[in-house]
Structures are given as C-alpha cells and as structure tokens.
Amino acid sequence: MGLVWSAVLPVKRLESAKTRLRGALPGVAHDRLVLALVQDTVAAVLACPDVAHLMVVTSAPAVAGAVSALGARVVPDAPEAGLNPAFAYGARLAGDAPVVALAGDLPALRPAELSAALSAAGGRRSFVPDAAGTGTTLLAAPDGSLLDPRFGPGSAAAHAGSGATTLAGPWPSLRQDVDTGADLAVAAAIGLGTQTDALYRSRPGRGSRYRSGMQGTVASYDPDGRSGTVLLDDGTELPFPAAAFDASGLRLLRPGQRVRLERRDGEVTALGLVTMPGSAGPLR
C-alpha cells in the first residue's frame, strides 16, 4: 500500500443541495435522495483501504447523524462560505496528512476504483475529472496545505490550470457524479449503493405499469460499458445494463434509435431494434 489518506467530503444543507436533481424520483423526497447519495459515497470511501479517516464537513443535522453512524468524523462547516472554503477547512484540520477531497454525489463508487486513483496520484497534487470531463470528483494532495480546491463549474480546467495532474483512468464509478436524473440513470447502470438503490428501485415505472415488449428511444449508450438508457414515450428514462445489451445480439446502439424492451422483475433484460411497426430485430 502507498500513502494513507485523510478524506474530506463537504455536504450542503439538504434542502439547498442538488437542485437540478429535484423531482428525479417522483414520490421520493428530495432531501432523502440527496442524503442517500451521500450515505453511499461515504460508505464506499470508508471501505477503501487507502483511506484512514473520513471527515464530513456539514452543518446539516440529518447528514451528521447518518454519516456518523457509518463511521465518519463530522465537523461543523465553520466557514459557511461555500464548497471550496469547506474543503480547505477540512484539509487544514487534517494537518500534514495526505488529503483527498471528494464529491459527495458518487452513489455508484467502488472502493477499488478509489484505491486505484489514489495509487495513481502518488505524491502528486492530482484530480479526477467527472464523466462529462468538465467537473471534478476527486482532488488529491500529498500535503493537505497544498490542496487549493477549485470545485464548481469548469473545475476540471481550473484544477488543471492550477498545476494539478489530470488522472483520467478507467474509473467509471469514481467519475460518475449525479447532478441530474439522467446522471442517476447512468449511475444505476453502473450499480448503485444500497441506500440510493432502494430509492431508485421504488420509483414509478419499475413495476408492472411498464410491460415487457414496450418501445422507447435510446437516450445514451456507453460502448465501453455496453450499457445506457432508454427514454420511454411517457418521458421515463430506464437504464439497461451490459447483460441486457449482450443478450440482444446487437453490435452497436446510437442515441435516437427506437428499441423494444424485454423486462423481468422490473429490470431490462434485453432489447432489440424496431425495424418496422410491431417488430424488432438485432442490428445488422
């Protein structure tokens, strides 16, 4: 094992966090969904063998109680001045330990991917861009005093411009932050943590209302992960995993293509291209 890191993870007050995600899961309270994202992120970080301590900087009582129960240390957000001052405050409290700053909306995070990124960082101040390539999900500094966080819109360019090394490894669960309902569907295709998964599985559309054999339009497709999302005609976005793509005999999918879905127990198990009204077939 290389460096042993102290992680810092700020969390806003739930009612004002993740505004673009509001309404993503009908019937689920917004603050409950945001808290689930945080809980699954914290659980994954604590399960990473390279992280010795996790400090959650927050003034939200519900967050403090939930993450304390998981084993995180909670400190009040004394600066109360936004995300970057909260990161910097946590880094100062960590002292001279190597510090990793993490986004709190990584519900599909795998500890092994976090470990791989920290190993790649080594002794360099480094950052991991988000899946879109414009944001940042991780900023690592071997000396916490050198963290210099620049999270926010355009943070990937800001961190690169400040001299941090870009770490763009194949870490889909680490790079997939969740700002919108579409982001949540992609994270679900990767595999959500237990708290977010329970809410996601309870969403409208997972039950018998959406029958096997119905049609939709491909909204996104990741050729490396062989997974993506389908937009149903009523506006509901459903993820499909690699297993569903592999079961379909398809070689490729493109956004905008019409597909027919096969489902079992609410999950997409296969899909085929709609080649004429009422029929579907594999891509030739």
Automatic annotation (TrEMBL):
Pathway: Cofactor biosynthesis; coenzyme F420 biosynthesis. One of its GO terms (molecular function) is GTP binding. Keywords: GTP-binding, Nucleotide-binding, Nucleotidyltransferase, Transferase. Its EC number is 2.7.7.105. The keyword Ribonucleoprotein does not apply. Phosphoenolpyruvate binds at T136, G152, S155. The keyword GTP-binding applies. It holds the Pfam family CofC. One of its GO terms (biological process) is F420-0 metabolic process. It is an enzyme of class 2 (transferase). It catalyses: phosphoenolpyruvate + GTP + H(+) = enolpyruvoyl-2-diphospho-5'-guanosine + diphosphate. PANTHER family: 2-PHOSPHO-L-LACTATE GUANYLYLTRANSFERASE. Belongs to the CofC family. HAMAP family: CofC. Guanylyltransferase that catalyzes the activation of phosphoenolpyruvate (PEP) as enolpyruvoyl-2-diphospho-5'-guanosine, via the condensation of PEP with GTP. It is involved in the biosynthesis of coenzyme F420, a hydride carrier cofactor. NCBIfam families: F420_cofC. This is Phosphoenolpyruvate guanylyltransferase. It comes from Rugosimonospora africana. The lineage of its organism: Bacteria, Bacillati, Actinomycetota, Actinomycetes, Micromonosporales.
